[in-house]
Amino acid sequence: MANDSSMTTTRMTWFPLTRTALGFLRRELSNLFLVIGQAVLMTRAMFGFLIRGRLKPRHFFDQASFIGLDTLGIALIMVTFSAMVIALQVAKEMVKQGAGGYVGALVSLAVLRELAPIMTAVAVTAMAGSAFAAELCTMQISKQVDALRTLHVDPIRYLVLPRVMAGIVMIPLMTVVTATAGILAGMVISRLLADIPFWQYLDSVWQQTEYKDVFATLLKSSIFGYIIVILSTSIGINTTGGAREVGIATTRAVVWSFLTVAIFDYILTYLIYGSN
Amino acid sequence: MIRADEKPLISVRDVHKSFGRNHVIQGVSLDVRAGETLAIIGISGCGKSTLLRLICGLEPPDSGEVTLEDDNYGFVFQYSALFDSLNVFENVAFSLVEEPDRNGGRRQELPDSEIRRIVSEKLRLVGLEETEPMMPNDLSGGMRKRVSFARAIVSNPRIILYDEPTAGLDPIASTVLENYISALGRELGAASIVVTHQHSTIQIADRVCLLHKGTIRWMGTPEEMKVTDNPYARQFFDASLEGPLTPDLV
After folding, report:
1. B171: which residues sit within 8 A by CB, 6+ positions away?
2. Which residues of B touch A150 (CB under 8 A)?
3. ipTM score for this prediction
4. Which of A98, A206, A217, B141 is the most buried (most CB within 10 A)?
5. Best mutation site among A152, A156, A160 for testing chain B: the one with the most B CBs within 10 Å?
6. Global pTM?
7. Rounded mean pLDDT of chain A?
8. Chain B contact for A62 (CB, 8 A cutoff)
9. Judging by beta carbons within 10 Å of its beta carbon (0-12, 13-18, 19+), is residue A3 exposed, middle or buried?
């Protein structure tokens, strides 16, 4: 009797919960496909403006400085400390195993191939992606996007194109800076904790790092930049409603950017290194 | 002076628009000529703002035709819709500085001194020449509306569309704005459409068009509205609870 009652309670609790979860998943997936479709259309329109030379340098530099100045500090801290943690974890052990000459290579490859592009992308998503989604969503809701149209200015050319181009250009540049800082931070930690000389660390970095690694980092960062900004702006400019929707759009832009970057990180890494 | 034989600057022919199952505009036709002000009135949700969005191309009609004789038009939004990242000067100067995208056209480049002169002149017209460096968030509702006016008329449009320009303003601020609308219509010889609920704003129009459930129920002058037997116009004008509009009000 007691068992029957507990089964009934469980069924009554879990069935609506499962239905709610499935409904949420279905809604989010349909939203995701909608946003991807809108992003594709926006990309096509942007390409048209770009080949007609309609990107104004002033708009581009405004957005580039926003992405760079607002995000670089946080990206630097994230990548530098992550590189220091790697050096902290492996330097002493590798010296004990007689592989002290490979610490620089290990830190350098980890930072260049993975940490710097991903951490920089995360910092840009959190700072710039969320700001773009919230700003464009507010502009849409307060009819500023309509006002642009009535003044014969295309919102994709004026609002989206400079942001996307700034993302594609700035994130690789920032990644170069954060990767360099990370490798140097690893060098300092290796010297302090495992007594690895600077020249030995740098020699290891130089010997084991290939041009391909640098190219892969720049390519990944550019693609991450495109993904983050096109998703954030697409979600922002296509949202309607009120203050609640601004919050939802901002959260959605950040979460979807993280997920898409993680998926593309695996695909790109496989395409670049997987076949070896 | 409005001439009936003159070609209308705004022409709407049998326009229909639906959002899902909601048939918002159902076969509306109207003309507005140079120097004429048409007030569109009706209860909330009757399709006034949608009609205005159809006229300026913010929404495409499902069927029918909207023709604007001049692509250069101004639009004053209900809540001003000023660009909040730009100051008052930059907002008003926007269409002089930014190249238009429509028709792939490039605007004739004006020297900075000329842009400054035009913007100052338009801001002086609305009594806000001191506010150039201020941000929209620092302005009152009435001031924002006036800046929005200045932005709409900066390129001397021959067509001006107003979406509830006096909504939410005190009676004095409303009168100030209504005087601007009248003066702009006269000075620019523009064809104007004003979507409004307010009696005082209706009085400045040459013609009034009452919209209900997406259909024009009555059209005439403000004077005719006072004496008409049309039950829709009568109920709206008298603000009565009895009449054909009531089922949609309660």
Report:
1. B200
2. 56, 58, 73-75
3. 0.89
4. A217
5. A152
6. 0.87
7. 92
8. no
9. exposed
